[in-house]
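Thread: Pentacotripeptide-repeat region of PRORP domain-containing protein, structure

OP (GT): Posting the sequence first so everyone is looking at the same thing. Length is 197 residues per the record. Can we get the structure tokens written out before standup tomorrow? I want them in the notebook alongside the other entries.
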Amino acid sequence: MLCCRYALPLVTKRLESIKINQRPRNTVVCAAKGPRPRYPQIWKSRNRIGTVSKSAKLVTCVKQLSNVNEEVYGALDLFIAWELEFPLITVKKALKILQKEQEWKRIIQVIKWMLSKGQGRTMGTYFTLLNALAEDGRLEEAEELWVKLFSDNLESTPSIFFDKMISIYYHKDMHEKMFELCFFLPSYLRLLCSTII
């Protein structure tokens, strides 16, 4: 049974001044003889987890899995299931941690998953993927990515991509492809090839 109690104003003898308390005593009293407890909203959590701890948790979650893509993609989907927005900053920090630990296969899996979600389509992400593919020894995929990036962004391909592809070809003794790439370089990037030749 619920009842409401209201604070009554204090009336003085002269009826001239009415003094009302500053704190209203409007409380709902439950049958257990006490004020009703206030519970926090379910969707608002007070303990916020920062992006650094989230990214560390993502790294440990991904590193414990096998190399099966479906298993990794499922775990990553579960990781972001309750997020309102895609946690791009968390994933980028996790990629930096994986890059420091040289977990190239995991980097490739996480970036491909992120790109399949339509997130993180930046040159930095593509460069990290290109670097991971080269370090993992997957040259065919690295060349496919390079051709796709170069054909899509003829005028705006950063010089760091050319430098990376030249260094990949140089270290793998693929000199013909390296000279072919130097032939397609814009005029302002010819200095990269002049140092090699």
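GT: Both are above now. Quick notes for whoever picks this up: DSSP finds nine helices and five strands in the chain. Residues 137-197 form one domain.
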